[in-house]
Design the sequence.
């Protein structure tokens, strides 16, 4: 009787060697390759979710006025500066949310100006969010921390992304 040893190189004769050392080594190499692909592919996901600064739209936040009395109201201005070929969407609208520990009150929704020719956010006019300070504010300065959420798109490539950008600014209180 003739005995034939099957190997991974001969798939027809390899039915009996599925869990042999050659097969296990092959599967381990394959597994290592796909793990590396998944880890490398996962890194752009962190960029798209807003973990790093946005390379396509620069955002500046300015409180107006920078000096406020306790109990008074003011406006926060969000200035968007998109790169060439990028636009900021007006729908869904820009959103501003405060961290829970902040002593500033948001009044209403952000006021946005839409470009009538394109329907996109007019970046020449800032988005304005009305805020107020409680009468009980007794600090000399209030540091406001929050998140601005907006959507931007590429005109030429056809993709869109949501951006969550952390913002921080200081309001000085008048006595």
Sequence:
């Amino acid at each position: 009787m003739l005995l034939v040893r099957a190997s991974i190189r001969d798939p027809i004769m390899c039915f009996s060697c599925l869990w042999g050392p050659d097969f296990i080594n092959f599967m381990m190499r394959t597994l290592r390759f796909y793990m590396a692909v998944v880890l490398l592919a996962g890194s752009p996901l962190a960029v798209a979710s807003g973990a790093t600064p946005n390379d396509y739209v620069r955002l500046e936040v300015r409180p107006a006025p920078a000096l406020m009395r306790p109990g008074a109201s003011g406006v926060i201005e969000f200035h968007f500066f998109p790169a060439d070929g990028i636009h900021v969407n007006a729908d869904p609208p820009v959103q501003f949310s405060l961290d829970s520990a902040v002593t500033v009150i948001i009044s209403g929704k952000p006021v946005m100006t839409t470009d009538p020719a394109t329907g996109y956010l007019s970046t020449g006019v800032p988005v304005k969010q009305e805020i107020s300070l409680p009468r009980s504010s007794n600090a000399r300065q209030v540091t406001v921390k929050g998140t601005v959420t907006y959507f931007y798109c590429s005109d030429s490539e056809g993709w869109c992304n949501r951006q969550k950008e952390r913002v921080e600014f200081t309001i000085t209180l008048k006595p």
